[in-house]
Amino acid sequence: MHLAYPAVLSALLFCTGLYGVLARRNAILVLMSVELMLNAVNLNLVAFDVWLSKAAEETLHSGQALTLFTIAIAAAEIGIGLAIVLAVHRNRGTADIDKLRDTAEGHETDGHDTGSPDSEAPAAQKAEATA
Amino acid sequence: MSLAAAAATVAHTTTTAASATTTTADTHGFLSPTGVEIAFLLVGLVTLGAAIVTVTTRQLVHAALWLVVTLGGLAVEYLLLTAEFIAWVQVLIYVGSVVVLLLFGLMLTRAPIGRSPDADSGNRWAALTVAVASAAALVWVVVDAFRATWIDLDGAAAGSTEVTGKALFQNWVLPFEALSVLLLAALVGAIVLSRKAKTNAADTATGGKADADKERAR
């Protein structure tokens, strides 16, 4: 098999996940897109490992070992990420990442020093405390 | 003549990957694909289509279910690349647990499941531009670099359970054990994260409901 086939599929899957991360608004859909990107990397690792194990008689099998590690780390990441999303959803009532703008720059630039007059100050301080 | 022959034999017996695979890849063109390549291409089309539907559909649960198709297709691709152990780990962990976790998350955060018009944010077109540009760049570079590289799939499987287990427990024992510590830390972290929200809510909720909720959040 040409190495170009899995490499091209991996590149296209990665860019699909990139689009999902940038364009989605729900935090769980963003996590799904991150999973897509991780899987694209896994496909690349496996394809290059199979190539090198035959072409260069490489017996370390680093690609497959790293793929297993990536799968385990992705499982841990999805657990922690979902716990964070659920905690945010309980505190704020939304999992919409466009509305979680407490640490955004540019809107209230010097509001934290002087104390912002509107009622969002406790929410922002709470977000900073939990972050 | 003899010098050229000696150089040719040296170049042939050199185990550098490039020369060895270029000579084998010259006999295989892209216009006469093998059966494995055709199968890889078809499964890859299904996988890519499911991935695109995953990131574009407005039905949140459908996105998770199309993600199952994508991950299953990738497992088939691993099987076609003779990495059997990775394929079954992919099926067990991704399709078995990650998608189930995602579905739990979707159903816990969005109670009315259905078509949600606000699934995509306002910067869709910027995201599409970035994705298409990076896809074009990556595909161009990858095809230009590896169009003459040939994966030899004949012979013993490169990723059978025996081979992977030997490599994992001979060369990768220390990262493997470190990974178990990381999984333990992730477990403790997830419990702590979901317990902190529980102490706030426990004032109003009854004990039994909070306990069941904690079990579910785990």
UniProtKB/TrEMBL annotation, chain A:
GO terms for biological process: ATP synthesis coupled electron transport. It is found in: Cell membrane; Membrane. Residues 97-115 have a biased composition (Basic and acidic residues). One of its GO terms (molecular function) is quinone binding. Residues 97-131 are annotated as: Disordered. Its main location: membrane. It is a multi-pass membrane protein. GO terms for cellular component: NADH dehydrogenase complex; plasma membrane. It catalyses: a quinone + NADH + 5 H(+)(in) = a quinol + NAD(+) + 4 H(+)(out). Residues 121-131 have a biased composition (Low complexity). InterPro entries: NADH_UbQ_OxRdtase_chain4L/K (IPR001133), NUOK/Mnh_C1-like (IPR039428). Its EC number is 7.1.1.-. It is an enzyme of class 7 (translocase). The chain crosses the membrane at residues 66-88. Keywords: Cell membrane, Membrane, NAD, Oxidoreductase, Quinone, Translocase, Transmembrane, Transmembrane helix, Transport. The keyword Transmembrane helix applies. It comes from the Bacteria. NDH-1 shuttles electrons from NADH, via FMN and iron-sulfur (Fe-S) centers, to quinones in the respiratory chain. The immediate electron acceptor for the enzyme in this species is believed to be a menaquinone. Couples the redox reaction to proton translocation (for every two electrons transferred, four hydrogen ions are translocated across the cytoplasmic membrane), and thus conserves the redox energy in a proton gradient. NDH-1 is composed of 14 different subunits. Subunits NuoA, H, J, K, L, M, N constitute the membrane sector of the complex. Belongs to the complex I subunit 4L family. This is NADH-quinone oxidoreductase subunit K. The gene is nuoK.
UniProtKB/TrEMBL annotation, chain B:
Residues 1-20 form the signal peptide. InterPro entries: NADH_UbQ/plastoQ_OxRdtase_su6, Nuo/plastoQ_OxRdtase_6_NuoJ. It catalyses: a quinone + NADH + 5 H(+)(in) = a quinol + NAD(+) + 4 H(+)(out). The chain crosses the membrane at residues 35-56, 63-81, 87-113, 125-143, 172-193. Its EC number is 7.1.1.-. One of its GO terms (molecular function) is quinone binding. It is found in: Cell membrane. One of its GO terms (cellular component) is plasma membrane. Keywords: Cell membrane, Membrane, NAD, Quinone, Signal, Transmembrane, Transmembrane helix. Its main location: membrane. It is a multi-pass membrane protein. Belongs to the complex I subunit 6 family. NDH-1 shuttles electrons from NADH, via FMN and iron-sulfur (Fe-S) centers, to quinones in the respiratory chain. Couples the redox reaction to proton translocation (for every two electrons transferred, four hydrogen ions are translocated across the cytoplasmic membrane), and thus conserves the redox energy in a proton gradient. This is NADH-quinone oxidoreductase subunit J. It comes from Streptomyces spongiae. The lineage of its organism: Bacteria, Bacillati, Actinomycetota, Actinomycetes, Kitasatosporales.
